[in-house]
Design goal:
The complex is a heterodimer of chains A (about 240) and B (about 325). With about 240 residues, chain A is α/β, with parallel strands linked by helices. Chain A has six helices and 13 strands. In chain A, a hairpin with a 2-residue loop joins strand 7 and strand 8. With about 325 residues, chain B is an alpha/beta fold. Classes of the chains: A alpha/beta (about 240), B alpha/beta (about 325).
Chain lengths: ~240, ~325
């Protein structure tokens, strides 16, 4: 089975988000970038499937050269090879176009990714890639098993889950608890250095959206403390002052 | 030209998030000088849809193919794109749900449209420029995004826009068929497992959430009792889900569920930045924590310093004393 895992390079979850004074750019100074946590679930599950059933795992990232440390990390965790499409990922359709092109070229059985990136929060790429390739997308999946050419998945829906069987090829977007992310070991880190990382040029430049500016949400005006002895007063304040009960 | 609103239904009723989408779509239609039509899919009867007129919808297209009661992306996309074609829709509005995202992303490719998800405010329209504000960095920031294609698809974040209700408004309901084939249902679920009884976390106006400060699963009944008394949904922090006290679908935070209820009560949650990202668009936040230095107090509207096992019973008692 040939699996493609799409990973995105995002600020660590503990990052305090700030922008340039004109609000046009995210301040990356001092920010630690990581593999998007949702993509890590997809990557780990792909490696588990490969270990159990054979095949290969290729990681693909749409990004500039600064994403390579995290591509190497994905190789250290257990992917076999990697593709970086040399393009700044500014728009979901633009990114999907790249993924669909190189996925088609490689002839993968399964295309895995996280449900969304924790920076852009688009939750779009999985469906766009599926539509561009003319194959189904199951999103967001919390469980994935493959038997021959059939995948069995659990999909989260509002208020429950569904059990779905679908034929490969297939696009799947991952969410917890699909797999427990792994930390690369020393042997993985050593071998990752020599695994192939191919840099390819982008296809098309068809962005359909553009970010105009960023802003931080308004800060809270301050907390009103209630004495523990009179905790019940909180309920009265929520009704009479905040008017939410 | 028209605005098309996608209506999700469950148990014979229009979902609250779809009422928000309908209100949003009607306002966009008014700004563009056109009307708003809805397309309804799922388990619903015509009379439940006519009242969408109260949200400003003039006409509802209903495909009552019973195979559509379960969500199947390919079939839903076919119905909506056919509706968009017959209504000559230039803007499609849906809710930013799992279903909305799955449909919106495929539709955007099929129709060559610009798509914005997680949208929190009405568009700014100036001549040919069409800009929407959306949540980014997992709730830590907002961004204005220009949608440059002629067709635009907007997925509206839950609880971010108000439901407008004009009493007595009625929409005409027309039957609509997309002539679906069996192949459109290739990924239909074999089985659907629903949580029983509880209020849906993602749709809830009130949420009571617990963290490690509860000390153990044996104290979880405090969260449930308070939630039940208030009519709230329950949620938890990531550590609580990771150790297995509660299921992952209740985990609120950056890599879990993002909620934006009117009231979020956090009990025994310190307020790590990843947790705040999942809740900071809540209208009112209450924090109960025995550590007065817990970072969550900085993001709260009301706070109580104390042990959950002592404070929560007092809250339950006070909530029971409220007249409904």
């Amino acid at each position: 089975m040939k699996i493609l895992v799409c990973i995105s390079n995002v600020p660590d979850t503990t990052t305090k988000i700030t922008f340039s004074l004109d609000g046009k750019a995210f301040n990356t100074a001092g920010v630690q970038f990581v593999i998007n946590p949702y993509d890590e679930y997809a990557l780990t599950r792909a490696i588990e499937l490969k270990e159990a059933q054979g095949g290969s795992v290729t990681v693909l990232n749409v990004g500039e050269a600064d994403t390579e440390p995290n591509i190497r990390k994905a190789l250290a965790i257990g992917a076999d090879d990697a593709i970086r499409v040399n393009l700044k990922p500014t728009d979901a359709f633009l990114v999907s176009q790249q993924i669909a092109h190189y996925a088609q070229e490689g002839g993968y059985d399964l295309i895995l990714m996280g449900r969304e990136s924790i920076d852009y929060n688009g939750f779009q790429v999985h469906g766009m890639v599926g539509e561009l390739l003319g194959i189904p997308t199951i999103a967001p999946a919390i469980k994935l098993d493959v038997n021959g050419s059939t995948a069995t998945l659990e999909r989260e829906i509002e208020g429950g889950k569904e059990i779905i069987e679908a034929s490969l090829p297939l696009v799947v977007s991952a969410q917890q608890p699909m797999a427990e992310p792994r930390i690369p070991n020393m042997r993985g880190i050593m071998t990752a250095r020599t695994k192939p990382l191919k840099v390819v040029e982008p296809v098309g430049q068809d962005a359909k959206t553009s970010v105009q500016n960023y802003e931080l949400p308004p800060a809270k005006s301050g907390v009103k403390m209630i004495d523990a002895e009179n905790a019940g007063d909180l309920i009265k304040l929520l009704r009479n002052e905040a008017k939410v009960l | 030209m028209s605005v098309l609103v996608v209506i999700e239904c469950a148990n014979g009723e229009v979902k609250k998030s779809s009422l928000e989408a309908a209100s949003y779509g009607s306002k966009v239609a008014a700004a563009l000088g056109t009307s708003a039509t809805a397309v309804a899919i799922g388990d619903v009867q015509a009379n439940a849809l006519a009242s969408l007129g109260e949200q400003g919808i003039t006409k509802v297209l209903l495909d009552n193919d019973s195979r559509l009661h379960d969500f199947v992306a390919a079939a839903y996309v076919k119905v909506i794109s056919k509706a968009a074609e017959s209504e000559n829709s230039s803007v499609i509005v849906l809710s930013n749900s799992n279903i909305g995202a799955a449909i919106g992303s495929r539709l955007a490719v099929k129709l060559g449209a610009s798509l914005a998800t997680n949208v929190v405010a009405l568009p700014q329209i100036n001549g040919s420029s069409f800009t929407v504000r959306r949540g980014v960095f997992s709730g830590k920031a907002l961004s204005d995004v220009e949608l440059s294609s002629d067709k635009k698809i907007i997925a509206v974040k839950k609880n971010a826009v108000d439901i407008e209700t004009t009493a007595g408004g009625t929409a005409t309901v027309e039957n609509f068929s997309a002539d679906l084939a069996d192949a459109d249902f290739a990924t239909a679920p074999k089985e659907t497992i629903r949580q029983s009884g509880d209020i849906l976390l993602t749709e809830a106006d009130l949420v009571v959430s617990g963290g490690r400060g509860l000390k153990g699963p044996e104290n979880w009944h405090l969260i449930e009792d308070l939630a039940k008394t208030l009519g709230a949904a329950t949620a938890c922090s990531k550590p609580v889900a990771d150790v297995g006290w509660r299921p992952h679908h209740e985990h609120v935070g950056q890599t879990g569920i993002t909620v934006s209820p009117n009231l979020y009560i956090a009990v025994g949650i310190s307020g790590a930045i990843q947790h705040l990202a999942g809740v900071n668009s809540s209208k009112v936040i209450v924090v109960i924590n025995k550590d007065p230095e817990a970072p969550f107090f900085k993001a709260a509207d009301y706070g109580i310093v104390g042990d959950a096992t002592e404070i929560v019973p007092k809250l339950i008692e006070a909530a029971k004393a409220l007249d409904k």
